[in-house]
Write a structure and sequence with these properties.
The protein has helices at residues 3-7, 56-61, 90-101, 120-133, 162-174, 186-190, 220-228, 246-250, 303-316, 323-332, 358-369, 388-401, 417-428, 441-450, 480-499; strands at 13-16, 29-30, 41-43, 66-69, 83-86, 110-115, 138-141, 145-148, 151-154, 179-183, 199-204, 234-240, 256-261, 268-278, 281-290, 294-298, 340-341, 349-353, 376-380, 404-407, 434-437, 457-461, 468-471, 474-477. By secondary structure, it is an alpha/beta fold. The protein folds into three domains: 3-101, Udp-n-acetylmuramoylalanyl-d-glutamate--2,6- Diaminopimelate Ligase, Chain: A, domain 1; 105-332, 3-Layer(aba) Sandwich (UDP-N-acetylmuramoyl-L-alanine:D-glutamate ligase), CATH 3.40.1190.10; 340-499, Alpha-Beta Complex (Protein-Tyrosine Phosphatase, Chain A). The strands form four sheets. Strands 9-8-7-10-6-11-12-13-14-15-16 form an eleven-stranded mixed beta sheet, sandwiched between helices.
């Protein structure tokens, strides 16, 4: 593919053009100076730690056929045969160039983008499950993984770099996918990772204060403005009518607009909500009204499960999915690490969730309290080399809302696990909450199971879908599902020995 084809549709200025763009053949699109290859186009990206512009001369001397920049560089250091393209924003340029490089694969897919503070991950899996039940072949990109046909790729970011997104899209098309559902994060919009194509459907689940701080967003207003970009980059926008920031969310939208929620003003509504509790299980049921009319039951607890499933219904409605297929798919849905029920006993309920900050933990514990448990048991730790304030806040939240807190280790990284636990305890001490400290996470889980009482709800929070524990720069295998299975096996063996 030649340089002219890669730059079509992108505002740019050729400040160094050794030959006509159509005569410059490009071998690859590169943004990492370590991967520069003969004949590539090197896009100079500014990151948190490095600025690609400082590697421009080196990339050109290493064989790059063209450079894409958005800041001044010393042209005297650039070989005369290297084309130099100036754009307003090189990250935006990377997205457009990547889309062209892979042949604009989004045009061959129905694209669904989901943004919001909470619910993105669960909703993407719900949508994929419903659509595939009705014959569609759906790709997925999100916090846990990217799913492309039969392949699964571990996720480094909720929304990958634009080049990776376009690469996945092309693989999806080649694998026979006709649609893709993906999580679109505020960082993804801020860094133009989702540029270069238009979503067919853009979903805004909700917004609360989160991701504010160094290397993220300077304040809530900036966070909101980034997320709102979705409603200017989609054809149909589907928005939570109940969110208290609704008017701000839709301000300036350029798409056709639909709403969902519990409000009578919502186009698609959930009514007659009922909590469901069985032997070791929790769920919720409701009736869909408005644009559709049928009953729904989801084996995931809480009002947020209503919003997540209603969001999925609002999307799949556009694919003419029959109500019976939606009902069947939602009844079977399970999402790894998102209020994931793990059956250990008929007497009490145990689940795994990714809640790793005070806001998420409070939402989760408040939801579970609605099921009137005998005791609400909260097991969690906090990550090392992160804000100590988060530890105080999570400790105080758990101490206030749980009947028993089991403080344990999460990803201590380069910190002493006991020091982290001490900080969590400081937060709990602001309340009257009961707690125990068990550094080893497996032993903490064993304690929770061994001391489980009839009617208890036990939540293992913080790790969710993660299958590792990071200690001193090394990631060690640690999957809570495996830990739970090992504990149950050990307890069973000990029980058999006791009977002998």
């Amino acid at each position: 593919m030649n340089l002219k084809q890669l730059l079509e549709g992108l505002d740019h200025e050729m400040i160094r053009q050794p030959s006509a763009p159509e005569n410059i053949e490009i071998s690859e699109v590169v943004m990492d100076s370590r991967k520069v290859a003969e004949g590539c186009v090197f896009v100079c990206i500014r990151g948190a730690a490095f600025d690609g512009h400082t590697f421009a001369a080196g990339a050109a001397k290493a064989g790059a056929a063209a450079l894409v920049i958005d800041s001044d560089i010393d042209l005297d250091e650039i070989p005369a045969e290297t084309a130099v393209v100036r754009t307003e924003n090189s990250r935006y340029a990377l997205a457009c160039i990547s889309a062209a490089w892979f042949g604009h694969p989004a045009r061959e897919l129905t694209t669904i983008g989901i943004t919001g503070t909470k619910g993105k991950t669960t909703t993407t899996y719900m949508v994929k499950s419903i659509l595939e039940r009705t014959g569609h072949k759906a790709g997925l990109i999100g916090t846990i993984e990217a799913i492309v046909g039969d392949k699964r790729y571990a996720a480094a970011n909720t929304t990958p770099e634009s080049y990776t997104i376009q690469k996945y899209f092309r693989e999806m098309v080649d694998a026979g996918c006709d649609c893709v559902v993906m999580e679109a994060s505020s960082q993804g919009f801020m860094l133009h990772r989702t540029a270069g194509f238009t979503f067919d459907y853009g979903i805004f689940t909700n917004i609360e204060r989160d991701h504010i701080g160094p290397n993220e967003h300077r304040d809530f207003e900036h966070y909101l403005e980034c997320k709102k970009m979705l409603l200017k980059q989609c054809r149909v926008g589907i928005v939570n009518r109940d969110d208290r920031h609704f008017d701000q969310i839709i301000e300036g939208h350029t798409c056709e607009l639909e709403t969902f929620g519990l409000s009578e003003e919502a186009d698609l509504r959930a009514e007659d909500l009922k909590l469901i509790r069985g032997q070791g299980t929790l769920g919720i049921s409701y009736h869909v009204r408005g644009l559709m009319d049928f009953p729904v039951e989801v084996d995931i607890p809480g009002k947020f499960s209503v919003y997540n499933s209603l969001t999925a219904i609002a999307i799949c409605r556009h694919f003419d999915v029959a109500p019976e297929d939606i009902i069947a798919a939602l009844a079977d849905i399970r999402v790894k690490g998102r209020v994931e029920l793990v059956k250990v006993s008929d007497d009490f309920t145990l689940m795994i969730d990714y809640a790793h900050n005070a806001m998420a933990l409070e939402s989760l514990l408040t939801t579970l309290r609605e099921y009137n448990p005998h005791r609400l048991v909260s097991l969690f730790g906090c990550g090392g080399n992160r804000s100590r304030e988060r530890r105080f806040e999570m400790g105080e939240t758990s101490g206030r809302l749980a009947d028993l807190t089991i403080i344990t280790s999460d990803n201590p990284r380069n910190e002493d696990p006991q020091a982290i636990i001490d900080d969590i305890r400081t937060g709990i001490s602001r309340t009257d909450g009961k707690y125990v400290e068990i550094i080893d996470r497996k032993e903490a889980i064993r304690y929770a199971i061994e001391h489980g009482e009839p009617g208890d709800i036990i939540i293992c929070a913080g790790k969710g879908h993660e299958t590792y524990q990071e200690i001193r720069g090394v990631k060690h295998d640690m999957d809570e599902r495996v830990l739970i299975a090992e504990v149950l096996q050990e307890l069973a063996e000990e029980g058999e020995q006791g009977e002998e």
